[in-house]
Design brief:
Helix content: 25-40%
CATH superfamily of the largest domain: Spore Coat Polysaccharide Biosynthesis Protein SpsA, Chain A
Strand order of the largest sheet: 3-2-1-4-9
Mean pLDDT: 87
Number of strands: 14
CATH topology of the largest domain: Spore Coat Polysaccharide Biosynthesis Protein SpsA, Chain A
Order of helices and strands: EHEHEHEEHEEEEHHHEEHEEE
CATH architecture of the largest domain: Alpha-Beta Complex
Largest sheet: 5 strands, mixed
Number of domains: 2
Low-confidence stretches: 1-14
Distance between the termini: 65 Å
Shape: elongated
CATH class of the largest domain: Alpha Beta
Length: about 350
């Protein structure tokens, strides 16, 4: 059994704490896999998934902070133009985090620029452990604690830094993928297996990022495709000799499609722990532009040809959270908007 123990230069008897940096990518308005025309198995809107998954991550980090006082924890959120309500909720959640926090609103659009921004921040600000996370992974209470503890034990045993992908993806057990050599080891609370596949989000050592920045940069500048991880970051385990481990059962669930649904974990029990209680966002109207309020906006903004973006600001209102509006409300009652605020409705 692998028992937690300190790793060389990071001896816990030192007065310096080890550093755990989590860099979370959030985006409530869209889905990089939308072209597949599939529904996520939890049946919720992306904005709701973002809120609950982020809440589960903060909860797990708070528990790790209590369990591992020898660590300094930090959480940075990089948000890619989420709707106003989600941004408000994320910032409210950060107030409950027992760690240093930062919130960055990205100027760039799209999942790959967002991934690259997260990687760059991890390279620049990480010191020991860096966890690149995404907003559609739901965490169990002990996820961060167990990931850190296993990292200590395995890295010491192997005399080399390891990485961890916390989701035991069922898709990797389908017929076309199951002929792979792997090793199983027993951790303190569950088994772990070596792995050759990760998504863009995983926990690793800062030294691995620095020494292999070419692969992280290649991932962050790739086009979205089925091979983007294989041709970049998965070269860490498949070609460069680094170890990647995954827990059995999973410590995090990917709330993606049925192919990623873990048959051995009750995802709804995890999900129901984070039913949101929130207040409407205090929406701030732009003052330098004329206002067009798009009531019942649906999922698409107004066509570019219909207004000049340098003169007009669109405020999107809808009662359907799937539309990821700026204001989630029924058209008969929109308290976030003052009277006579719009030039066009």
């Amino acid at each position: 059994m692998l028992q937690p123990q300190a790793i060389g230069a990071h001896d816990h008897s030192s007065t310096l704490k080890r550093h755990f940096l989590c860099v979370l990518q959030t985006h409530s308005r869209g889905d990089s896999q939308a072209h597949l025309n599939k529904k996520r198995y939890c049946g919720a809107s992306k904005s709701e998934i973002t809120r609950r998954c982020t809440a589960s991550l903060i909860d797990s980090m708070n528990r790790a902070s209590d369990a591992l006082p020898q660590y300094e924890f930090e959480l940075a959120i990089f948000d890619d133009h989420s709707d106003a309500q989600t941004v408000h909720d994320l910032q409210e959640m950060l107030l409950g985090a027992r760690s240093k926090t930062n919130f960055f609103a990205l100027e760039s659009h799209g999942i790959m620029p967002s991934i690259l921004a997260c990687y760059e921040y991890g390279k620049e600000h990480g010191r020991d452990l860096v966890y690149f996370a995404q907003d559609d992974y739901l965490f169990c209470e002990t996820a961060i604690t167990e990931m850190i503890q296993f990292d200590e034990a395995a890295s010491a045993k192997l005399r080399a830094p390891i990485s961890i992908y916390p989701f035991n993806d069922p898709f990797r057990y389908t017929d076309i993928n199951n002929h792979e050599f792997l090793r199983m080891v027993q951790g303190e609370f569950r088994h772990w297996r070596t792995n050759n596949h990760t998504a863009s989000c995983f926990m690793t050592h800062h030294s691995i990022i620095e020494k292999n920045w070419d692969l992280f940069y290649k991932m962050g500048t790739s086009e979205v495709s089925a091979s983007m991880e294989r041709d970049s970051i998965n070269c860490l385990w498949q070609e460069r000799g680094y170890f990647l481990f995954t827990p059995i059962p999973s410590l995090a669930l990917h709330l993606q499609y049925d192919t990623e649904k873990d048959p051995f974990i009750d995802w709804r029990a995890w999900w129901d722990r984070f039913e949101p209680t929130r207040t409407p966002t205090p929406f701030i109207l732009p003052t330098e532009k004329k206002i067009v309020v798009n009531v019942g906006c649906g999922k698409s903004p107004l066509p570019v040809s219909s207004l000049r973006h340098d003169e007009w600001a669109e405020v999107r209102v809808d009662s359907d959270p799937e539309a990821s509006p700026d204001i989630l409300a029924d058209m008969a009652d929109v308290p976030q908007l003052p009277a006579h605020c719009a030039d066009i409705i």
